[in-house]
Amino acid sequence: MRTFEDVYGLWLSSKCPVAGAPTLEAALVILGYITFLAIAGAILPGKTYAGTVLADGSRISYKCNGFLLLLVLLASLGGLVLTGVVDPKYIARNRGALFTTDLAIAFALSCILYVQGLSSSSKAASFEPHVTSNPLQDWWCGVQLNPRFLGLDIKFFWYRPSMMGWLLINISLAAQQLDVRGSVSLPMILYQAFTAFYIFDYFWHEEYVTSTWDIIAEHFGFMLVFGDIVWIPFTFSIQGWWLLQHDPPLSPFAAAILVALFLAGYAIFRGCNSQKHEFKRDPTAPIWGRKPELVGGKLLVSGYWGLARKCNYLGDLMLAFSYSLPCGFSSIIPYFYPTYLLILLINRQMRDEARCQAKYKEVWTEYCKRVPYRIVPYVF
Ligand code: NDP
User: Fold this and answer.
1) pTM
2) pLDDT attached to residue 9
3) Alpha-carbon distance 276 to 213, whole Å?
4) 270 lines ligand 1 (CB under 6 A)
5) How far is the CA of 335 from the centre of ligand 1 (A)?
6) Percentage of the residues of the chain whose pLDDT score is greater than 70
């Protein structure tokens, strides 16, 4: 039986302190990073995509230049590292202050968004305040659907510091391991390669985000503000933090199996999301070489969408496990992310299906009859 210290030792031990107090330096680093992304993202060229049709018939335009922005960010930081201005181990060595300061920034921003949302008198679907009798719930879930600041769609933008932050943390962890161990271990190499691929791919397909549940259905409050800027970078990287203090054995054969798991998960995840995205763009576009089959003329029942109603969640879960399995089975800590994702996606599947049932009514009922499996074909 593991003790509390065993499970959370990584976070609590003096070797890996996370509970540092917020500092002005950490605030300047994080706000500088966010500001850089906002300004560079606005200046850099990029293709514009129209988002989903909102309740009032309007659509938001999103400039999807995240991939270019990521390259510019890495090139800029790379230059600063080469000239000795920035230490690549900075995040790993200042994790406590960066974590708590990031948390404070998320808290402050969600309070500003709450007040800004309440003071809006707009009737546009994006800005109309969504207010209940519970102020805490409104602050947590958000008041406006697509709040803006200086012309920036903050909800769409917020994924950039979030996902890029996850990559920066990972790079810093690899640099720290190289410094301490003298080399980067095979489990760390696999974790780094898989997650870097996922993050680059995310920004390569950034326009796909415009049709996801968070963008089309969630209001922007503390849950998403915190989830993006704190939860994603700091908890999705737990495997990397863990590998700083542990050196699990991994044979080349086991590594090859993990690469196969990652590639299979990626094929399902990306294939499924691409099919839906292409279908929304052009409902006649072929799927797996054939004309798409529809239910009620609205819902796709071809390709992955005919095997289970959420194969994309299955692919994402396979990817999540491929990030953790390089750590072996000696501890449950590296399995935090896949466990969290499993719970989140089962809950998300139920919430999304409730929304689809309300939107598509008998067409959704018919779709569920045609495709009875939720996430795993022939199993669940
Ligand atoms: P989906 O991409 O599955 O989007 C759901 C929406 O798709 C529905 O609301 C509906 O919207 C439309 N839809 C559903 N079924 C069909 C169909 N058969 N044909 C056509 N349209 C359909 O869900 P999410 O936005 O939740 O997830 C997107 C990706 O993000 C997934 O791969 C997921 O794994 C990942 N994700 C990752 C998380 C993480 O923490 N790593 C967290 C959450 C998601 P409409 O009304 O427009 O038709």
Assistant:
1) 0.88
2) 53
3) 13
4) no
5) 24
6) 95
212 lines ligand 1 (CB under 6 A): yes
Q: What is the pLDDT of residues 16-39, one digit of tens each?
A: 444 588 999 999 999 999 999 999
Lowest-confidence segment of 12-21, 31-40, 116-125, 322-331 by average pLDDT:
12-21
Which residue lies with its CA nearest to atom 10 of ligand 1? 356
- Cα–ligand 1 centroid distance for 350 (angstroms): 12
Answer yes or no: is the C-beta of 313 below 6 A from any ligand 1 atom. Answer: yes
Closest ligand 1 atom to Cα of 305: 18
Ligand 1 mutation pick, 60, 201, 213, 323, max ligand atoms within 8 A of CB:
213
Q: What is the pLDDT of residues 143-184, one digit of tens each?
A: 999 998 888 999 999 999 999 999 999 999 999 999 999 999
